[in-house]
Structures are given as C-alpha cells and as structure tokens.
Amino acid sequence: MPNTTNAHTVAGMIARLHDPQYARWAAQIKATGGCRQPIHLRGHVLHVDQATGALLHRYSTSTEPDGVLRVPCKTRRASRCPSCAETYRADTYHLIRAGLAGGKGVPETVSAHPCLFVTLTAPSFGTVHTRRERDGKLLPCHPRRDAETCPHGRVMSCTARHGADEECLGEPLCPDCYDYSGSVFFNALAPELWRRFTLALRRHVAKLTGHSLKGLREELSIAFAKVAEYQRRGVVHFHAVIRLDGPEGPDSPPPAWATSDVLAQAVRHAHQAVTVTAPAVDSKPSVVLRWGAQLDVRPITLGGDLTDQAVAGYIAKYATKAAECVGTLDRRINATEDLAALPIREHPRRLIAECFRLGSLDGLADLRLAEWAHMLGFRGHFSTKSRHYSTTLGQIRTERADYRRNEETSTGRLPLFDEDTVLLISHWSYAGKGLSAGDAVLAAALTGSYVADHPTRLEPSHG
To answer: 177, 250, 431, 444: which has the fewest C-beta neighbours closer than 10 Å?
Structure first.
C-alpha cells in the first residue's frame, strides 16, 4: 500500500508539472501562503460602468487551473494549517500589542495607562502527574512520605521526575477518583465565570474609589483582552490583559486615582468573590465552582520585567491552539463514533465520554456538551477583547486586503476604477477544499511549508 500511495503522489506531481497552466497554479499556491487546505471557489467578478452599462473588466475562474480559485482557509488552529495559523497569530500579536504600546489607530500614550497581566486558573479536580521545578532543579512529581491509599487501591504518591514531553503529564494518579464531571462543567461554565469576574472587577474598583457604577463610567473605562489556554489535565485557564483608561477609551488618560494598585486589589477581590453553580446530576447536589487558588497578577511596562512584546507574543501563541494540546482531536466527535478506537490518551477519552454522558441528561441541553465534546466542554471564544481595547482582527485583515489590491493596481494586474462610478457584480460558490497528495508536495516546495505524512485530502463540493 505505501508503494502504491507513493506512486500515486509522484504521478500527481508529474501531471501538475506538465500542466500548461502550472505557472498560474503555482502563483495561486504562493498567494495562499502555503495553506494546507485551501478553499476552492468558482465564480466571476464583473466591473460595470453605472452610467453606460458597459462591461469594463471581467474575471472568471473558468480560465484558472482546474476551473477554481484557491484562497487560504484562514483557520486559527496550528494543528490544521500552520501557515494560516501563523497569520492569525501575527494579527493577534499586533492587536494585543497595539493596546499596550499604541499603533493601529491607538495612541502611543496608552503605554502610560495602568495595565496588568492576569492569569486565572482552574480549581483542582483530582491529583494529576505534573512536572515541577524550583530554582532550575527538577523535583519529584507528588512525593508523599505517608501517602494515603485511595478507595480504589492506588497509592496517591509519585516520586518520578517527569520529562517535559512525558504522556503521563496531566493524567490523574487515580482516574477513578478524578472528578470528570466537575472538570467538564468548569470548562462549560468558564465563560460565565469570566463574565462575572469582569462585573465584580468593575464593582470593586467603584467601591475602592468611592464611586457608583454610573459615576465610575463617567470617569473610567476598563479594557480587556484575553485568551484561553488548556492545561494538560484538560481544563482551561485564562490569560488576560486588563487596562485602565479614561471615559473615552485609550484616547483619554485615566484619572490620577486609577492606579495599578487599585486595579490589582480589584482583581484579587473579584478572583475570590465570583462563583458559578454547576447543575445537580446523578442524585448529587449542585456544586459551586470558582477560580483556582493560583492567581498571577503582574504589571506590564515598556522595558520592564514584563514587556508589551512578551505579553503580546504569549497571548498570540495560545490563540492558535485548542484542546488538541491536551491530546484530544481538533475536530468534532460524533456520538456514534467508537471512543475506544480514537487515537487519543485515556484521560481526554474519559473527559469526552463524560461530555456525551452529561449531554444526554435532561436539563443540560443548554450547555451543548455533546456538541463540544472535542473541546472537553468548553465552547467559548479562545481570544476575546472588549470593544475599546484596540483595533480588531477584521480591521487588520481589511488593511492587508487593501494593501494587496493597491499593489495589484499599481503593477497593472488590476485595472484602476473609480469606485463611485463602477458597479461591482460578483458571484461565488464553494467548490471544495484541500490539496491532492502530489499537489501538497509541490506546494510545500514552492512555499517552504511543512508537509504532514498524510496531507489534506482533496474534498470536492457536495452541491
């Protein structure tokens, strides 16, 4: 079978290289930036003079290789397409950094506004294998001199010094003792816990400074930008940039009483104060969930210990990752699939099974646990920001599109039209996605991108 597959790949490469339209196909591939699973579009664009009705310019995919135009998939997941994920990471980096140092329409004076980098963790749902270091020295996992034996006969101790890539990291010492339902509920309710955290934060800032909430809004606004990260045990925690602005957002300075110390006090209070209640299941009472005991609060300063570049890079890195980092899959899992046959670790397998089990219970439909089983119950957006934090990803992408359009116009690849007098008529339809095995190898050679052992298959349109 491998020889047959290789022969098919080589045959596909030869056929593409001998195609009279190879140069145009290569140009399309380069334009996608090395996308692993480019989207195939069929359609046309017409530029019509509104006054006379004359056709000024026409583009149609009928003259393109294979009759389609290939465009990037634009996924944020590095596991699916490293090229598009890198673009997403870079855009997120600039979005976050603009809110710290200025740029992209944000004044540079924003760098003087009080700003904190906050990490909110999840509580414990059972003892798991972990890698611990202190002063550069690797420590035993969970050494216990008089370790207890759990009800399932396992000694709750581990003296191993785990390597950074060991598969056991994040695995429970006793899976039967681990609170899988609690872990799933925390992931599902983490977005609500974050929402309540932001509300409690504003209320406590108002209390500390002697304001009502209405009075606070007239003098101060609080901006957020956050990203969710999966820990190896399969629960999310949040990294957030929290900034104090004047009432007009980053364009206005905050009042003198709005300091980093005031913000830090409010963050610590909100971290302790907010809770969310998980539903009662299996004849057990409802459980109150809160943030984990670990809370990291650090000021962000230009040229300090924690710089704007470091924070922006850290958040942008995790914006391209999801639950696959835990060892699960980066696609939806159907309830009819055989979970035992999935190529994943046992711990995420149990979490996925718990999502399906809980999702089938009455009263839990709103959590959509079965639909988000591949995300271990978390269904929130991975990277979010408040409206006035900085620019948006959409604006960054629009700037890139405008730049490319101007470049094509200046080089003569596109005609120069007066947008006020020209009517644009376009029609597009989805025609599939992906690359054949041979095309994937050639695309990697053209763009310098990585080719997986099993390249994305070519998926045709289904009507």
So the answer is: 177
Whether 299 has a pLDDT exceeding 60, the answer reads: yes
- Report d(CA 428, CA 367) in Å as an integer: 35
Decide: 343 and 333 in contact? Cβ < 8 Å: no
Domain extent, residue 67, equals 2-71+424-460
Write the pLDDT tens digit of every residue in 415-463.
Answer: 777 777 889 899 999 999 999 999 999 999 998 865 544 444 445 444 4
pLDDT of the residue at 461:
44
Residue 322 in this model has a pLDDT that exceeds 90: no
Q: What is the mean pLDDT of the chain?
A: 91
pLDDT surpassing 50 at residue 362: yes
Question: Which of residues 144, 172, 200 is at a domain's end?
Answer: 172
Cα separation, 156 vs 219, in Å, equals: 53
Strands (E), 406-458: 422-433
Integer angstrom CA distances of residue 439 from 137, 200, 398, 460: 48, 54, 29, 15
Do residue 223 and residue 281 come from a single domain? yes
Q: Say which residues have a Cβ less than 8 Å from residue 238's Cβ, sequence separation at least 6.
A: 119, 120, 190, 194, 226, 227, 228, 229
226's tokens: 């956050």
Three-point CA angle 236, 240, 199, nearest 5°:
95
